[in-house]
Design a protein that fits this description.
single chain, mainly alpha, Arc Repressor Mutant, subunit A
C-alpha cells in the first residue's frame, strides 16, 4: 500500500464515495475509515438508532396524549408507538 502525506491529499483526489465522505468528514477521517474497512461492503440502515434506544425515548417522552407527535418524530407508525407504550404499562403492572 502506498503511503502519502494526508495533508497533500484533497477530497477530489479520492474515488467515488470516498470523495463525498471527505467533503464533510475530512480527508484524514476518510483515510482512517479506508485503512480499517477497505474491501468491506458497508450498509447504512435507514434507522440510525437501535429499537431499544427508540423504545426508551418513547417511554420517557410519552405524556399520555402525544402518540402522533412521537410517531412523526421517530418515523414509526402510531400503532407501533401505542404498542411500546402498552408494553411499558403492562410491564409496570407486573412489577418489571
Amino acid at each position: 500500500m502506498v503511503t502519502l502525506d494526508s495533508k497533500k491529499i484533497k477530497g477530489e483526489n479520492l474515488n467515488g464515495s470516498y470523495s463525498e465522505l471527505a467533503s464533510f468528514l475530512g480527508v484524514e477521517t476518510v483515510l482512517k475509515i479506508h485503512s480499517k474497512y477497505r474491501g468491506t461492503q458497508m450498509f447504512f440502515p435507514v434507522e440510525l438508532f437501535s429499537r431499544d434506544f427508540i423504545r426508551e425515548q418513547i417511554v420517557n417522552e410519552y405524556n399520555g396524549s402525544n402518540i402522533r407527535e412521537l410517531a412523526i418524530k421517530y418515523g414509526y407508525t402510531e400503532k407501533w408507538i401505542r404498542k411500546i407504550v402498552k408494553e411499558k404499562k403492562d410491564n409496570d403492572l407486573k412489577g418489571g
